[in-house]
Write a structure and sequence with these properties.
single chain; 438 residues; alpha/beta; Rossmann fold; GMP Synthetase, Chain A, domain 3; seven-stranded mixed sheet; six-stranded mixed sheet; globular; binds guanosine-5'-diphosphate; ribosome biogenesis; Small_GTP-bd; ribosome binding; nucleotide-binding; GTP binding
């Protein structure tokens, strides 16, 4: 199930970050050892009642002159229109209705995307309500008064947001063709790779029904098998500011990964693996997708016998949170190892939805426990009663133990490695849930 995407748009200082932090709370970082994700809050997972969605803050830098503010806001709004299922348009009751708000409202209205108008800083409903009505003039419907900092009005606002979510079982869910997202920093060769993969056979470009986003996906066929490349090139923006480019490449990656079964993370071999690559990789890791690291532009690297080994080591070191990821050395330019990409994708997709039997799983774990005693604390030893797989995409296991606090990260890692030794699961993360049974 791909989660709906909600984007927040608004002028600087209306309270976007505050609202974002209030809604996302502690859920903002899921995996502690994924770099980048805790530091800049560009996106976060939010749960409201039975709904889960991804919240995106499209606003980045804070420009100082009025003209720049408007052009930046248009840019933000366009990103929101291109990527979101629902747009939250945030305004500030204290500053009142501003010119730029009106212009952005026009743009949002024309997009036909669902827009929820949120009037922030209404810390006192009696006092500020009369000023809230002014925002009806924007022509995008009922304004929802909230106070992001005092956590007021958020329930009504969220009720309105989730009302606009696409129906759950849409065509995208029924379509069993694997969906592939190609992500990476700017200029690593994503477009070149899309073109190269698509060119293998006849390309049909179509707007796939069942999504409310404007992504134009590409259907490709290889060896008689169909795949869908989730295209993010269509939402490419021209932007000269470096921070904005980075922010946008993260937003693009989040929205594409959300819908994907397998992710091709493209890295530029001539540049080596960087912190920014790690941030983008973290997005796919957090969501438990199948991952293939494509070291692109391999044609342009001066190589010796150790090159592959050295590159692999470097990648494993910087992307240490995803040791399971597959690595391929490719060239989008020459087409080097293209068949290998398809072959690996098939295997990774299969591993990402593989189920293993409870019997054999418990045998493996019992053997592992016999080989390496579980940890103890203050004389009490961890006991593992039972393990079972409860979900796929990613494969998720529940381990029943006597005392949760005794289950250390390193022992989970150890069990994971034994399970991987037996069943493979290459290219996919595994999730472990530890439960107590008295
Ligand atoms: P952003 O630039 O849109 O991300 O705005 P921020 O979240 O950084 O907020 C700008 C300022 O408005 C900060 O000083 C916040 O403390 C303040 N602020 C945010 N939400 C509220 C609110 O609900 N009530 C009041 N009184 N101040 C708020
Ligand atoms: P994107 O921004 O990630 O979509 O990157 P592009 O596909 O636009 O490629 C950026 C630049 O890298 C272009 O000049 C490409 O021609 C070049 N490029 C892409 N793939 C390769 C490759 O495999 N080898 C070489 N030598 N250059 C490449």
């Amino acid at each position: 199930m791909s989660k709906p995407i909600v984007a927040v748009v608004g002028r600087p200082n209306v309270g976007k970050s505050t609202l974002f932090n209030t809604l996302a709370g502690e859920r903002i970082s899921i995996v502690q050892d994924t770099p980048g994700v805790t530091r800049d809050r560009i996106y976060a997972e939010v749960s409201w009642l039975n709904y889960n969605f991804t919240l995106i803050d499209t606003g980045g830098i804070e420009p100082d002159s009025k003209d720049v503010i408007l052009s930046q806001m248009r840019e933000q709004a366009q990103i929101a229109i291109d990527t979101a299922d629902v747009i939250m348009f945030l305004v500030d009751v204290r500053q009142g209705l501003q010119d730029a708000d009106g212009k952005v409202a026009d743009m949002l209205r024309r997009s036909n995307k669902p827009v929820v108008l949120v009037v922030n800083k209404v810390d006192d409903f009696d006092k500020y309500m009369p000023d809230v009505y002014e925002f009806y003039n924007l022509g995008i419907g009922e304004p929802f008064p909230v106070s992001a900092s005092s956590k007021l009005g958020l329930g009504d606002m969220l009720d309105e947001v989730v009302k606009h979510f696409p129906p759950e079982s849409n065509e995208e869910e029924e379509d069993d063709r694997p969906r592939v997202a190609i992500i990476g920093k700017p200029n690593v060769g994503k477009s070149s790779l899309v073109n190269k993969l698509a060119q293998k056979d006849r390309v049909i470009v179509s707007n796939i029904a069942g999504t409310t986003r404007d992504a134009i996906d590409t259907e490709i066929r290889y060896n008689g098998k169909d795949y869908i490349l989730i295209d993010t090139a269509g939402i490419r923006r021209k932007n000269k500011i470096k921070e904005e480019i980075e922010r946008f490449s993260i937003i693009r990656a989040v929205t594409a990964v959300e819908r994907a079964d397998v992710v091709l993370l493209v890295i530029d071999a001539t540049e080596g693996v960087t912190e920014q690559d790690a941030k983008i990789a973290g997005i796919a890791h957090e969501r438990g997708k199948g991952i293939i690291i494509c070291v692109n532009k391999w044609d342009a690297v001066e190589k010796n016998n150790d090159s592959v080994k050295e590159y692999t080591q470097k990648i494993r070191q910087i992307l240490s949170f995803m040791p399971y990821a597959e690595i391929l050395f490719i060239s989008a330019l020459t087409g080097q190892r293209l068949p290998k990409i398809f072959e690996t994708m098939d295997a990774v997709i299969e591993n990402n939805s593989m189920r293993v039997g409870t019997g054999v799983l418990n045998e493996i774990v019992a053997e592992a426990v016999a080989m390496q005693q579980p940890p103890t604390d203050k004389g009490k030893r961890l006991k593992i009663y039972y393990i079972t797989q409860v979900a796929v995409k990613p494969p998720t296991f529940v381990i029943f133990v006597n005392d949760k606090n005794l289950m250390h990260f390193s022992y989970t890692r150890y069990l994971e490695n034994r399970i991987r030794d037996t069943f493979g699961f290459a290219g996919t993360s595994l999730k472990f849930i530890v439960r107590e049974r008295k």
